């Protein structure tokens, strides 16, 4: 959906890119497996996905039936550039990709880098010397991170694979490992660990997952595959008695694990993926918390395991000393969102009340609706009259919600705007109107 949106942006199509981006987000965050939804509820079920209407539901159905979307394939024939790779470069959006392809015939990163080094990019309309320099810096960054993927790109696949494996009755326990469990900014590959009395079934399902393009290996308790997105996935079925130590080991980081092994040696122990041993006797391994406890420290969240002081903090905490492990901020700690554009006044926008109900589902206590203002015509910014109507509509909805029950009665919608700072430093909306809002965001959009 996101790539279709990018192709549509290249074509200069209005509104449709936003619809496809919205559908892409809906698919990513939907709380059910889309294939299962389609099997159980058919075409109508697909329209339950946020942002998915009749037209996009048809394309999802086509993909589920054939593995392809003709609409998308036609775009790829028309503009054969590697859109995903090129737009990964900072400052290169879909429209720039189109210009680069049409003017220079560039289809990939190597060709883009060569053209930039030869000074050809700066000569293109809307580019310039600074853009060319930024492109070269962006390509250099991608090369440094080669073989790694942004967490946001890989996490939806990780969750989808996890959900499919978890449904298998033969899987008793399942965890992700590696850098995705540590929620690193970039991910090299995906690791899964499972407990199962019938690992053959687990291996069969794993190697037949949607998106698998090559099976590197498939054994009795381990399989490794290559995905269409370009990364590898591994799964290991672990004996129950070693599951905790294996999870700790395969979560990492490498530096964290090296430090733990040194501590184990100092205590006369041996630590590896099979367990913690004192001589030939296994003293811990089934549970990850137990592994850390035997080493004299409290369990710590995977996000902290980078050998940057977390081990020392975990030891202090286990000893009841101050300066223990920090409390991590979780999604449940987020109480609201103050930067939301509903564009409710447009045909493809989201009604404010619908946005509020979705926010409640996230566990939010408030949401701020901050539409763009009149100077930003490309975003259909609101003028003073429309903003006053915006305030009035929000007041009415708040009044209705307050008469509801439970969390609905306590939920609050805040009226705001994202005002434009003009070249002379003034704001594009009259101060008297701004004073009637709950809050104002101001930004330069030129």
Automatic annotation (TrEMBL):
Organism lineage reads as: Archaea, Methanobacteriati, Methanobacteriota, Stenosarchaea group, Methanomicrobia
Q: Where is the DNA-directed DNA polymerase X domain?
A: 1-306
Its recorded name reads DNA polymerase beta
Q: Which SUPFAM superfamilies match?
A: DNA polymerase beta, N-terminal domain-like, Nucleotidyltransferase, PHP domain-like, RuvA domain 2-like
Does this UniProt record's set of keywords contain Ribonucleoprotein? Answer: no
Name a GO CC annotation attached to this entry.
cytoplasm
Give the protein's function. Repair polymerase that plays a key role in base-excision repair. During this process, the damaged base is excised by specific DNA glycosylases, the DNA backbone is nicked at the abasic site by an apurinic/apyrimidic (AP) endonuclease, and POLB removes 5'-deoxyribose-phosphate from the preincised AP site acting as a 5'-deoxyribose-phosphate lyase (5'-dRP lyase); through its DNA polymerase activity, it adds one nucleotide to the 3' end of the arising single-nucleotide gap.
- Cite the EC number: 2.7.7.7, 4.2.99.18
Record key words, sorted: DNA damage, DNA repair, DNA replication, DNA synthesis, DNA-directed DNA polymerase, Methylation, Nucleotidyltransferase, Sodium, Transferase, Ubl conjugation
